[in-house]
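Hi Q.,

Before the meeting this afternoon, I wanted you to have the MRU prediction in hand. No need to reply - just skim if you have a minute. The sequence and ligand are here:
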Amino acid sequence: MNSDQCNGILSILTDGMVLLLCNMYSKITDIKTVCLNKEGDAVIILDQTRLPGEEMYLSLSSAEDLYNAIKRLKVRGAPAIGIAAAYGLYVFSRQIKANSYIDFYHSFKGIEDYLAKARPTAVNLQAALDRMDRVVTANASATLPAIQNLLRKEAELIREEDAAACHRIGELGLSLLRPGMGLLTHCNAGHLAVSEYGTALAPIYLGEARGYHFKVFADETRPLLQGARLTAYELHKSGIDVTLICDNMASFVMKKGWIQAVVVGCDRVAANGDVANKIGTSGVAILARHYGIPFYVLGPTSTIDTDCPNGDSIIIEERNPDEITEMWYACRMAPKGVKAYNPAFDITPHELITAIVTEKRIVYPPFDRLV
Ligand code: MRU
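Predicted structure with the ligand bound:
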């Protein structure tokens, strides 16, 4: 994408990254969360930390910039992180100066290992890096330009497969829902978190196009407010009936009878069906079980980690406690020096999940064959 394509004005940030200002009136589905620039020498991401106030793209041409963008959630959502990393490996592979395949692969692997450390919980990051790695190792006798070309193709394929999966998840997910239903969602598993369309939000977009007129309740999703800043933003912008609630209001709206189904995304699904998703998801699942509300997890098979036996084996990312005590506020909201604990994800045990919807099928308990 260039500045014309995102309809914007080009300016330069002081830290060397290019910032593209974009048209605030574009449709959400016109926004490309992650893509490659025309020249293939930079990864373009929508800077999600600036939403909902500003739609701006960042052009990232170094591994450090991409690492920081992933770590700081400028690009976030399990599939979007994987796609960004895949494009990044292609871009950075072109910067490697090597006289032999061995030298090339040594540098390539170094970048790969570095990017893998940006965030630990979502499997898509490591899975995308592994796919790109296999392209290099399977073509050890090819020329470096040929390998780089194959890397670009693989990154595009990862994006295309994700887009196709999201649309299919929308269809399958919608088959579980009825017109007019009240739906609760947690965090952001929409267009912004993937290549396009979303996972948990895909049936909502599809349903809207087919006249289902869901009433969506979006948990604000403390501490980083992906529900308030991103889910409310993308659904509201798309004309969908969305009501923002604080995380601790979910039980109240369920008791009122306003919620007929919960739809959430996932960052890693273990072989037994346990699901890692944004912190607070397991609490919503417990409430849903209490009120007899179906709890659906929607995600591509790329988010299923069959090597991971259960939720206890999933590494939970811990983030800076400042995100709880002061970030997003005009002044501190907690006493200076107070201890704060900030895990980014939790595990929803499979017993609480009504069904897992992938692009292949709807999987019901027991979750003994996920892929
Ligand atoms: O920390 P984030 O914003 O990357 O967390 C995102 C989530 O928990 C999403 O629900 C998940 O990645 C699924 S996105 C389709």
